[in-house]
Write a structure and sequence with these properties.
Elements: H1 2-13, H2 17-29, H3 37-51, H4 56-81, H5 83-86, H6 92-105, H7 109-116, H8 120-132, H9 137-165, H10 169-200, H11 219-222
Helix pairs in contact: 2-3, 2-4, 3-9, 3-10, 4-8, 4-9, 6-8, 7-8, 7-9, 9-10
Transmembrane segments: 12-35, 55-78, 140-164, 170-191
InterPro entries: DedA-like (IPR032818), VTT_dom (IPR032816)
Membrane topology: Multi-pass membrane protein
């Protein structure tokens, strides 16, 4: 079966249009989560690793640039809408994602944007919240660029690992897609667990100097 399909898939992957399509998918996925950019990236990378086409370096750059551009669009959408409107989503899961992102953005914006890039729905909430909370765009863009490159490199790394074991392009692409999806779920779970543990910690109240309730203030100094 694969012997008949593989040549067609490889021929399609060798087209220069594959870079444009990948860039567009990664861009739209930045503000519209249903678009499967991870799946497309790892599938194309797996085919490239097993067949030599398309060029992996260009795949990495196209995906990273698309991701950075999409994240910036999400940022400006959030900045235009404002956090109050974002948090009023009728879907509880989406509202909770924005509430979580808003809490964490005040504490650790860099790590949140970096890890959020690996969570399909989470990155949209994070980037829109960054805009809604007026995080400096210059700072956001710098972090987003690092996150986009890291995300693209990790996704291609997954594809390369799968391709080194599975030499059939289509099988390697399918396995890479499953692993990439699992990575996103794992990052989401770990981030959620860490956040819940931090939120559950009791607030530390600074110790104050004990004073004898029967001794008026300043009495000790007058002795």
């Amino acid at each position: 079966m694969f012997d008949q399909i593989t040549p067609l898939v490889v021929e399609l992957a060798a087209s220069p249009l594959v870079y444009v399509v990948l860039f567009a998918l990664c861009l739209v996925d930045g503000f519209f989560p249903p678009v499967p950019s991870e799946a497309a990236l790892v599938a194309i990378a797996a085919i490239a690793a097993t067949s030599g086409q398309p060029v992996l370096a260009v795949v990495l750059v196209a995906a990273a640039l698309g991701a950075i551009a999409g994240d910036s669009i999400a940022y400006w959408i959030g900045r235009r809408i404002g956090f109050a409107r974002l948090a009023r989503s009728k879907r509880p899961r989406i509202a909770a994602a924005f509430a979580f992102a808003e809490r964490q953005m005040q504490r650790r914006s860099a790590s949140l944007i970096l890890t959020g890039r690996f969570i399909p729905v989470g990155r949209v909430a994070v980037n829109m919240t960054a805009g809604a909370t007026r995080l400096s765009y210059r700072r956001f863009l710098a972090i987003s660029a690092i996150a986009g490159l890291a995300w693209s490199a990790v996704s291609i790394g997954i594809a390369l690992a799968a391709s080194s074991v599975l030499h059939e392009p289509i099988v390697a692409a399918l396995v890479s897609m499953v692993v990439a999806a699992g990575l996103g779920i794992a990052v989401d779970r770990v981030l959620g667990t860490v956040s819940r543990r931090r939120d559950a910690r009791p607030a530390i109240v600074p110790a104050t100097r004990r004073r004898d309730p029967e001794t008026p203030p300043g009495a000790a100094a007058s002795r």
